């Protein structure tokens, strides 16, 4: 018998989505603020267009998050992770989607999510190179973040499986007692 997949309540999903939107907005504002020239000169002409694109793609990621949390962790999670390569607002939803995919405890899904994450980091590095950092700093930090998110997700999945197992055992004991 296949166990029922974990689905958070609508209220919990709404709270998580609003929290991700708020944290993503802060991330968006910090990143966009860091792109404004410090010397007070005019930003490049494409700055506003790129900022609006970042915002729209981030809103799409936040919009997909409830689907990733409740119905299709992999189907909606992979596009969210991909959107994070072009949108700073999508970073927090992408982290949440990665944890949700890891909680499934399916190796193929986890490999697909890790590959999407690595591709998103590579695209972001290609679009926004940082000359101040050594070449290895961003990939190392991204790899460490990936490891932490995967471990959190695997832990969550194991905990859910244990709870289901204990509930099944308690129901069997109750039936036997009757």
Descriptive notes:
By secondary structure, the chain is mainly alpha-helical. Helix content is 76%, strand content 0%. It is built from six helices and no strands. It has helices at 10-35, 47-70, 73-83, 91-103, 107-127, 137-177.
Features of the shown structure:
mainly alpha; 6 helices
Question: Based on CA inertia axes, which overall geometry fits?
Answer: elongated
Largest beta-sheet details:
none
- How many H/I helices? 6
Quaternary structure state of the chains depicted: single chain
Distance between the termini: 23 Å
Radius of gyration: 20 Å
Write down the secondary-structure element order: HHHHHH
> How many β strands by DSSP?
0
Q: Give the structural class.
A: mainly alpha
Strand content: under 5%
What level of helicity do the residues show? over 70%
Give the low-confidence spans: none
How would you state the average pLDDT, rounded? 91
